[in-house]
Specification:
Structural class: alpha/beta
Largest sheet: 7 strands, parallel
Order of helices and strands: EHEHEHEHEHEHHE
């Protein structure tokens, strides 16, 4: 088991990519702390994992709140005594309200930034002191190709937040490398998850997105698990500051 005796915190763990990753981390031997605002689904997911013999804890968290994030870290340390992996997956996409810059309200801008950029920063801020005490750790941030390219012109706040997350990843990688704390980012492609359901609402939309992917299919939550485990584990001990694609080849063409 590649994460045996490690403690991993996964945000946005109640559904979609986060649920897949927290499950895989648990099955790879990690004690997992699942963080989400959806208490019912998150609790159910962790109960499922415990029934499989995994060590799992759910904590209801609003990652945009520093007090809430601090409570998350305290809960993880109280239960498991260490934090080896921080997997910043939680994010919001406000379709229909996230608009081109001149139409975008400050309220929507702040709502997106508070979760997608402030949240990962707060989680890292409160996890890193424990990682420093332990002598190392791994931070994995889930970004988006919208943070690299202008491929979503109607998602101004989302795109900017994901670009900022890549910048945060790189500056943390440089700042903490000598302390054996690594920071990397994953770029998922067009994934068949609840967050992206709005993309496929029209009859031909799914086929349009599928046909644009060189590998010929939409991504699934399971597609990201292997890369997540690699970056969380010691197998990636010489990898920091990286941006890793899991997009079926979309950014290659």
């Amino acid at each position: 088991m590649r994460l045996f005796q490690k403690v991993a915190i996964v945000t946005g763990a109640a559904r979609g990519l986060g649920a897949a990753v927290v499950g895989r981390f648990a099955r790879e031997g990690a004690s997992v702390v699942a963080a989400d605002t959806d208490e019912a689904q998150g609790t159910e997911r962790m109960s499922q994992l415990r029934s499989e013999g995994c060590e799992a804890l759910f904590v209801r968290v609003d990652i945009s709140s520093e007090d809430s994030v601090s409570n998350l870290m305290d809960a993880a340390l109280a239960r498991y005594g260490r934090i080896d992996v921080l997997y910043n997956n939680a994010g919001v996409l406000l379709d229909g309200r996230d608009l081109p810059a001149h139409e975008l309200s400050l309220e929507v801008w702040d709502a997106v930034m508070n979760v997608n950029l402030r949240g990962p920063y707060l989680c890292a801020k409160h996890a890193i002191p424990q990682m420093l005490k332990q002598g190392g750790g791994s931070i994995v941030n889930v970004s988006s190709r919208t943070g690299l390219f202008g491929c979503a012109p109607k998602l101004t706040a989302y795109s900017a937040s994901k670009a900022g997350l890549i910048g945060l990843t790189r500056v943390m990688a440089a700042a903490y490398a000598r302390s054996n704390i690594r920071a990397n980012a994953i770029i998922p492609g067009t994934m068949d998850t609840p967050m992206n359901r709005y993309l496929f609402a029209e009859g031909t939309a799914r086929e349009k997105y599928r046909s644009a992917i060189p590998l010929g299919r939409l991504g699934t939550p399971g597609d990201i698990e292997g890369l997540a485990v690699f970056l969380a584990s010691e197998e990636s001990a010489y990898c920091t500051g990286g941006v890793y694609m899991c997009d079926g080849g979309v950014t290659a063409v």
